[in-house]
Each structure stands twice: as structure tokens, then as C-alpha cells.
What we know:
Strand content of chain A: 15-25%
Mean pLDDT of chain B: 90
CATH architecture of chain B: 3-Layer(aba) Sandwich
Largest sheet of chain B: 6 strands, mixed
Largest sheet of chain A: 11 strands, mixed
Distance between the termini of chain A: 26 Å
CATH superfamily of chain B: P-loop containing nucleotide triphosphate hydrolases
Radius of gyration of chain A: 33 Å
Number of helices of chain A: 20
Distance between the termini of chain B: 35 Å
Strand order of the largest sheet of chain B: 6-7-8-3-9-10
Number of domains of chain B: 1
Number of helices of chain B: 6
Strand content of chain B: 25-35%
Shape of chain B: globular
Low-confidence stretches of chain A: none
Order of helices and strands of chain B: EEEHEEHEHHHEHEEE
CATH topology of chain B: Rossmann fold
Largest interface: A-B, 31 and 39 residues
Number of strands of chain A: 20
Structural class of chain A: alpha+beta
Shape of chain A: elongated
Oligomer: heterodimer
Number of strands of chain B: 10
Amino acid sequence: MKNPMNKRLPRELKSDFGKYLVIFLFIVMVVSVVSGFLIANDGVGKAYYRLLDEGKVEDGHIAFNVEPGEEFLNGISEKADVTLYREPYFDEETDGARIRVYTLGGSVNIPEVTEGRLPEANDEIVLDNLHTTTVGIKVGDRITLGGKSLLVTGLAAFPNYSALFKDNADLMFDIETFGIGIMTGDGFTAFASDHETANYAWVYNQKPKTDAEKNAASEKVIGALREELTKSSMDILARSLKGEKGLSMIEVKDYLATFENKCVIFAEEDMNSDSASMIVFLYIVVAVLAFIVAITTINTLSRESSVIGTLRASGYTRGEMIRHYMVLPLTAFFTGMLVGNVLGYTFILDYMKAIYDKMYSVGKVRTAWNANAFLQTTLVPAVIMIAINYAILAWKMRLGPLRFLRRDISGRNRKRAVKLSEKIPFTGRFRIRIIFQNMSNYITMAVGIVLAGAIIIFGLMFEPLLNTIADRIEETGISRYQYILKTPEEAESDAERFVLSSLETTKKGYKTDEVSVYGIVPGSSFVKAEIPEGKVLLSNSFMDKYNVKKGDTVTLYDKYADRNYTFTVAGEYPYEASLAVFMNLSDSNELFERAADYYNGYFADRKLTELTPSNVYMTLDAATFRGVADQLWNAFADFMEPVKWFGVIMFVLMVYLLAKQIIERNQTSISMAKILGFTGGEIGGLYIAATSIVVVLSLLLAVPLVNWLLRLIFKEFLYQRISGYMPYCISNDCYWKMILIGLLSYVVVVVMQLLKIRRIPKSDALKTVE
Amino acid sequence: MSFVEIKGVKKSYGEGEARTTVLSGIDLSIEKGEFCVLLGPSGSGKSTLLNIIGGIDEADDGYVMIDGEKTADMNEKRLTQYRRDHLGYVFQLYNLIPNLTVRENVEVGAYLSKKPLEVDELLKTLGLYEHRHKLPTQLSGGQQQRTAIGRAVIKNPDILLCDEPTGALDYNTSKEILTLLERINQEYGNTVIMVTHNDALKNMADRVVKLRDGKVSRNYLNEKKLPVSEIEW
Lengths: 770, 233
């Protein structure tokens, strides 16, 4: 015989449809987003690895100021056991964007054409599909690059540029003002760019597998490079001593192993960390939902206490009762999971893929059913849901039948009512007692509100944060322009010399950061701070990110010289454009063993048109720095709007569900109050006001808690995982908006509750039936 | 040995100064098929004794043995099985499942038994067959209590425990319910133990047990058993 109690399930579902609908919607929302995300993530991940594999991505590259010569290159190949491939490129401007152009026909970094065809004529070019999609370039368009007109014959994904980082030190990729192109060999030569870079890709002859092996292999390359550089310098020195003219020292302009190259690894790392964050987020939300569901079930147990007591006394087992009360919430939960997965594989998947398409270029993405995503989005949450509900119900059901028959299942052996001063008006005491009565509901509600608040703030914070970053970079800018030169060159007297070196951070547990080490002239009119001899000032960005204090020492690493430098920190200098160290120019040149008057850059408040353009390695100005903020926002914007709405919906559903419980729990009292002559408004004033107090207090409490939580995420999680610096600052507007959004959402709940109170019949109080 | 043997059962509630002794050594034997009425004023311990017999409360001392098996020796699981297999419960409040019909509420009891009675037959006996598709809210108090009795009896339990089954009912409805219990006892041969504070109901019992201050003040077999229809109060 089937358990006849099952017959009440559809009726129970009908009579409490709102509750189960909320559980269902809640889980549909979370699971569809997370499963859609994970499947898109998986598809993009597979396409990414396929692109790396089929496109034969390099293991690293070295760029030189001049062609280094065969002997030099052979020396590296032999000593480091690598094969070097010539991969020259030039950077040219087109409509406010910089395009880096490579040549076709190489054996490594082979692009995958996603639309159109490869270039065949000298005036044809294929561009990456990320930048082109962003700026609206289509196959068949003509672009003007460095003043020359080229036909775009196709779009492609480049294995060495799945993410478009202009510079490896950049915080975020830049799809608006940076793109990749490829031309035929003849076209490349015919273009005759002034900005050609002698670039060589290397591929290991024996592929390293582990991180340690990759590191060791890369060290071997840089060791070989150092040896060849020393040998070449000695040779050039000897030859110039003999009077030979026109010799150039070989300088390394860029050295980057692929495992450190953001253009290649960022997509992978970002997808992995996004995926991990999404899963953690899903589990937290499911756990909160599980507690909410358990509370609603406990309220049902309270309402049906004596029936349960009778059934238990008649011989129904604990297990049968637990299962009975878990069936409906779990049905709503599993139906939600099913629908959530279906949506995740359809609409949401398309949405998520579109987001990824705007961030990474990985060629054709194919998505398929993914056992891992199913496990993570369905099985694990189901286990969390069942475990939490089973544990709480089993704990409640441990009470014997008699306790249920006596309706004594609260677990709180309260002998006496909490004494409240009679100075508090009657209505005030009434509300306080409602809060005491529903403490577990309200605690869950407060936790949920803080969580929803954190999600709302997370969705709101980035736009003002990025504007603040741009403002602060501009405010703390040293000069309107910074010129980095290839070789020292005189400029007008209003420009101020500096020497710039690049080192790397060494702090364990953090991603390696590039640090700009500035040598500043005495009495600088741009860096207005006293730098004690032998000591350094650190940019506030550096001090904040690495938690450095005045008097501490920091150790930085020069990867080209394989040498550590330790600096004593004399104080902070306000500068947020990069992580920077400021020292005296003489100290810098002495430390890096350069001529005492060496310099390689200028601070200036005007454009230094007198400098030779081909000698300018890089120009940094306000637009460059504002571009960083814009790039960051471009990367975040698509994510943040849905995040904010997710928080709002979560807030409404959760507060509605818990507030509904409180009204239902007090249905008989409300009915009695109606009989006594209280109006619906007065009853709402008592029961809804108590919930309102908790909601408002929770929203206010959410401000410091969310601030603390997000600060913790920034300092203990984000700073270790991103290179570059993002200050932690949340605009006060965000908190006001969160409170306002919370209150407006709550108004919706209040209206629903008032309607519910109005519908409670007076006869409820007179019923003797359970 | 009697079907139900109760020896030296003691029960107290609370701690320290607030400790109240409810049962202070109860000895009692009830034979199989007997209709036993437990009489006594409020607070005399009759409901507590019924709950201990039913295994939903524990004695501090002494034991209850049913058909040769001590309830105190049973673990929680075994005790539930014991209630499931042997006991039927009827309370003063009907405790029906509000969103199940009369028939379904009775089926809830049938589900627990390996040898349940025929549901429709019992509903006819209970006078509920016409109302079988109604929800509890559509029934009178007497009909609700009959449904509750049906839920307990459908299992065909060895012992039917009734705690003030007519406590919330008017005179006529009470008589109707008591007649039903009398009929069930006679037709199905279940042992019925009924708690009441209505002294007149001793007349319908085979055995009358009077409790006062936690002790058995009288325990006797009723030689002049009357049908309920002839009892007035």
C-alpha cells in the first residue's frame, strides 16, 4: 500500500503554492546562471586548449632592439634546448587603436580563421575577432593602418593572443584600443613599418610538464640569454675599442615565458577562478536557501504538531515523517534544478557565451553536456540541500510523540516570558515578542539580507570604483606625459629626466607584479618628496597591496640579471598608475651599475615633439591611464548588471518567504485579533512592523558587514590573485543604493503580506481542527 | 500472566523544588479483550499512565509488560514498531490531517498495519461512509472523532488507547462515540483502555481502575456492565 499521506502532497502544494514557487524560482535562478556559466566556461576552455594545441602556441618569446644575429640565436637554442622561430611584428595606429601585425606562414602561433579567408595580396590583412567585433570592423572593410589602406579579408583567433593585453603589466586586457593582425610575408615587408620589433618565439625541444619544470626550462632560456648578451656586449666592446663604427648593443625589449604571458594564460586563469567563485557562490546560496526551507518546514511542523504526535504515537517512524515533510520542498528544489539546467543549457548559455566572446578569442566554441557541471550544479547542491534539511528535521523529530502532542517542540524550555518594561507601549512590546517568537526566522533573514546586500553592492561597486581609480590615477599622476626612451636623448629644459628600471615582486602567495623603479633627480619639480639617500619611497598602491609599512624592507627581483635587490622603505608617495618605487637617480644608477648621469625617460607637462619618434619606446599620458579604467569597466560591465538584479531578486524572494512564515505562524492570533476588532492595518502594524524593524536593522547592519567582507575579499583573496593594483574603495552611494533597493524590494513584500493578512478569515481562531 | 502487566510504575516531572510526582507506584493487570476504564480527577495521573502504556512516555521506575514484552527494554525503533503493530490511539482532540479526506485519514492508519480492516466496511460501521470524501473541516465534532477512532481501529490493534475521547463532545455525540467504542471492543475483540474523568462511564467497563494522587485507589471487575445506551450522566 502506498503511503496515504502522499495524497496530501498535491493539496499541500496547491495551498502553499507561493512558498514552493519561491523555492523553485530561487533555485532556477541560481542554477541556470551557474550551469550556463560553467557550460560556457567548459566550451570556451576546450576551444582555448584546442587553439593552443592546433595553433602550436609558443613557449615564450624574446624581443630585441636589433636583429641579434645567427650566432647569438644559435647559442640560445643550443644552451636552452629550444627551437627559435623568427616572429617579427610591428605596431601601427588605426583610428585610435594600436594593431600589432605579424607575418603569415610561421610554424608557431598559427591563427584559426573564424570568418573570411587568410590574406593573399600585399594590401590584405586578417584581424583578431575580439578587437574587430568591439569596434565594428567587418570582413570586406578597409582599414587605414599607419597611413596605408588594407583590406580585411578575414577574422581570426590567435593562440598567443586569446586575451588582448597590450602590455603584460596591464591590469586588464584592452579590446578597444589594441588588436592583432596578420599579413603575408611580402605584405609585411612591403609595409616597411618604422616600428618593427625583432621578436623570436621559442619552443622547447623537450616539453616541460609541471610548473616546476616550466620554471626551470624558462630559467634555462634566460640563463642562455644572459650568457649570449654578455658575450655579445664583450664582443661589441672589443670591436668598438678597435675603432669599428655603427655597432649596436643588443638589448632585450621583452622576454616572456608563456606560462607568465597574460595574453595566453589570462583566459585560462580567469575562467578557472571565475568557475571556482561561481561554484562557491552557488553553494553559499544553496546553503542559505536550505536553511530557509528548513525554517519553513519547521513552521509547518509547529502548525501540525499534534497531528505529528498522533501519527508518531500510532507508529509512524521518524524516518517516515522526515521524508514526508521533505518531499515537497525537495520536489520544488529538484524541479527548479531541472528547469535551471534546461535554461542553463539554452538561453543562459547563449548569454554567457556572448559575455565570453567579448573577453576572449579562442576560435569556434562548441558546448556539450558536461558531467562535471552537472555534478557541481546539481548533485552537490542537492546533497547540501538534503543534508541541511535532513539534519534540521531529524533534530526536530528527535522529540518524542508526547512533545508533539503537547505542541512543545520549540526546543527552548522557556518557563517564563522575557520581562519587558511596561514603559514600552503595548504595541512595542507586542512587536518585540513577535521578534522573540520568530528569532530563528529573523536570524536567517538577517544573514540572507547581508548576503543579498553583498551581491547588490558587488553589482554596484565597480562602475564608481573604476571611475575613482581613473580619477585617483589622474590626481596622483607625476606629470601629464611620461616618455620612456630607447636611448638617452636631450629634450627642452622644462622636461625632467628620470631613469626607469623594471623589477618584479617576490612576495610568496602573490602573483608576480612588475614594479617601476624610478630614479628621480635631486629637487625634482615633478616628484615633490624628499627621498633619503640609500632609501626609497613606495607608491601608496604598492604599500597598500603588499601591506608594507614605513621602515620595512622590500625585496625585488631582476629577472634579466637574476639578482635580488632589497630596499628600505622611507615612506609613501601618492602614485596609483602602477606599483612603483622612487629613489634618487644617483642611487638608482649606482645600484643598477649604470653611468652616473644615465637616464632613459622624461617627465613633462607638454608633448615633447623634439624627441625622435623612433627613439620613444613608450609614452604614458592621462588617456593611457584612463584607458586602464575603461578597459576594466568594459570587462566587468556585462557581468555587473545581472549580478545586481540577482541580488535584488534574491532579497525579495527570501524576505517574502520568511515574512510569509511569520504571518502563517500567527494566523490564529491574527484571526483572533480581527475578531477582537483590530483592523487589517493595525494588525499589519503589529506583525509587519516587527519584520520591517528586522529588515531595516539588517540592511543597516549589512553596511559594515559587507564593507568588512568585501575588504577581506580584496585584501586576502583578490590582491593575491591579480597583478596590478585596484584600491579598495566603495562609494557611499553604493550603500545608499543598496539600502534603497532593499527597502523598495521590501515594500513589494509588505504589500503581499498585507493582502495575506486581509485574506485570513476570522473563523480560523474558532477552529478546533488541526 | 495478564495481557497487560503494570508493576511499580512511578513517574515524576520537573526538578528540585518544582518536582511533581504524578505516579507513585502503579500495579495493574488488564486481560486481553477487556474494556478498561481509567477514572480519576484532573491531575490524578491517568493520562500519564496511558502514555506510558502506549510507549510515548517513560516510567522512572517499574515496568509495563504487554503480551510478555517489557516496553522499557525496547529501543526507540522497536518501540515505534511496537506501537505500529499493536496500538491504536484516540485523543480528546482529533488531530486529523486537514487536507486529507475522511477515507484518506482512515487509510493513514491502515497503512501502518499488516492486517488492516476493510476501509469501506469500517467507514460504514462508523457511519462515515456517506462522508468519506469530505475534508475534516466539513465534519461535525462527533464525525471528526469517529474518523479519528476509525484511523486508530483500522489497524485492528491489539490495544486501543483512548484519552478522554469524548472530552470535547456534547452528551449525545459522546454517547454515540462510546457506543462505537463498545461495539468495536465487542466486534473486533481489541483490548480498550479508556481514560475519562466521567464517573458514570465506569458502568460500560469490564474493569474499572480509579486513580487518585498517582496511586490506584480502586481496581475491580465490573459485575454489572451496562450497554452505553443505558448509561446516563
